[in-house]
Structures are given as C-alpha cells and as structure tokens.
Amino acid sequence: xxxxxxxxxxxxxxxxxxxxxxxxxEIKMMQDLFANLPEKxxxxxxxxxxxxxxxxxxxxxxxxxFNKLKDALGDFKMDNLISESGEDYYGLFHESFSPLxxxxxxxxxxxxxxxxxxxxxxxxxxxxxxxxxxxxxxxTSFTIDKxxxxxxxxxxxxxRSNKHLGDKEFDKKIHQKYLTHIDISNLKGLEVEFIxxxxxxxxxxxxxxxxxxxSCRIKDRKLGLTTFTKK
Length: 231
Fold this sequence. Notes:
Layout: H1 6-11, E1 17-19, H2 24-36, E2 41-43, E3 48-52, H3 59-73, E4 77-78, E5 92-96, E6 103-104, E7 114-121, E8 127-134, E9 140-142, E10 159-161, H4 172-178, E11 192-197, E12 203-207, E13 210-214, E14 222-230
Parallel strand pairs: 9-10
Antiparallel strand pairs: 1-12, 2-3, 3-5, 4-14, 5-14, 6-9, 7-12, 7-14, 8-11, 8-13
C-alpha cells in the first residue's frame, strides 16, 4: 500500500511526548471501565485480552477523555474501530500476559492521514520500545519466520513483512535487557529511539508510523489503553 497523503502525514510527525493529562480519579475510572466492558477478543497466541471503549458506559468519562485528548492533540478524528451502532470506539484496552512482537499501528486505508496514538498505562510494570525506523504502509507485524510471512491477512488484520531489516547488528545489551522474547536476527538494522517505561498517571503521545514492540519485562499482567487518531 502506498500512503496517498504521505507528505501530510510526515508534516504532522514529532518526537514521542509524555504528558500528564488525567487525574488519579480519572485513571481509576478507566480501570473500572475496563472491568465492566465486554471482552472483544482474547488472542491466545499473543496472550492478549482486548476490550473496546464503547461509548455511553460512562458518559462523564467519555466527555472527559475526548476533551483532554483534544487539548493535547488539537483537532483529530478517532481511528480505532466503529461499533455496530456506527459510533467511534474511544480506544482499545489491552491486557497483556506476555510481550507483543514488533509491529506498527499505521492503519489500513491508504487515503487516511494517520496522526498520533495515545498510550495510557493502567498498570505500572512494563515498557514499550520504539525504533527509529518508520513505516507508512498498512499496519504490519514484522517477522523473519518464513511461515508467518505467508500469512494472508483478512480485513482488519496486520500484514506480515521482513522489510524492516537492515545490515547493522542490533545492540546486544539492549536485547538482553528488554527484548529477549525476540530473535535478535529479527532486529537486525533497527536502532532504538526511545524506551517508554510505563507509569500510571501519565500518557505517551507518539506517531503512528513508529515501529515498536513491548519489552520482555512483564511480571503478571500489563494493562493499558491505546487510542489511534487521524486527521
């Protein structure tokens, strides 16, 4: 896929930014919302439970969340999923019990001007590793596994690719500390730009073109909220 408005996408990019936009009470409201929402998917292979933020479960929190994102991001449109009633989901809660592999959340439509994703930790243990390399195609999971590369995605599923690879050997110390769940050969050519150490009470704003993955530092579970946006 070729990004139709690539120049506009690149013009909106900026370094990762940590912000404190939600109060302790609002974080607690998000944690409670996760507990009450119906389960959307439980991916047994990735060992991740996902729940979509459906509007009107907590109308007060809906308004707070949207308005605070707008203060932080300026004008934007949600780009998560659409509910059966035609309303935007406000984000995806992801409860991980093992680390996610290398991927990018760049969306599935070539005409979309992808913008920021906002990650709000709801548990304190975990890291997200962002690499310098960007990706402007469809949402993709990156792998060197030959069988995985044959995967034919259905609508809403990530492509598979090994085009993230380069020539330079990956930093062995970083691999040993953060990325032992990933074959170091699958990191060849990548360089780390930023490692986000999760902290409850803050949020991370980052471009959707960033290739990234979770670190191996998960103890029991890792719960966060991610919202994807576009212009």
